[in-house]
Amino acid sequence: xxxxxxxxxxxxxxxxxxxxxDYYDVDYEYEYDEDYDEDxxxxxxxxxxxxxxxxxxxxxxxxCIGLGVVLWFVDPGSSLVATPIPGSDIGLSIxxxxxxxxxxxxxxxxxxxxxxxxxxxxxxxxxxxxGMELVIxxxxxxxxxxxxxxFNERDIALWNQFNEEYEPISGVVDGAxxxxxxPAGSGLEGRLVYEVxxxxxxxxxxxxxxxxxxxxYIYLE
Length: 221
Description:
Elements: H1 19-23, H2 43-74, E1 104-105, E2 110-121, E3 132-143, E4 149-152, E5 156-159, E6 165-166, E7 179-182, E8 187-197, E9 204-207, E10 216-219
Antiparallel strand pairs: 1-2, 2-3, 3-8, 4-7, 5-6, 5-9, 9-10
């Protein structure tokens, strides 16, 4: 004996299709807009962002260069490359001495200048040996640094072309350079007396203060 199942009816039977099922087509080919990238962002937006960053970097570099130029004109000493002291880069070797009218500056910041050279000088207290003559060299020392420095006339010798050394004769002339200290920003003049071979030329003044500075050389006229 069979059983009877009543037929179901109502607003929800048979099942209704969803709106997605009415529009979905597995064979549909989608078209992509070339104005958008894979992330869905417009290409124009990315290009504008890149141009904006480049402009910002350019403006930063330009500002740095402009600031450096302004600082240079306001205070040239603030530049990264220090300007050498005039005279500090000449007279560095016996082969290339400074000229007689040039001043030299040693590593301590002291400047030496030859003011006068008196060949075959006559001094009452010194009689040169036969075949020799006296040479009086007047020099000026100026302390360009900020600290007090010592000086000694024994640091200034004459060399001939064979690198033979003539040391100064101390205490035989008025206004001798002698020895002492030189305050910062001050200078003095002094005379040095040497006994050399009569008529000897190609003499070079050698200024050597020791390990604190490399020697400086000035050709003696």
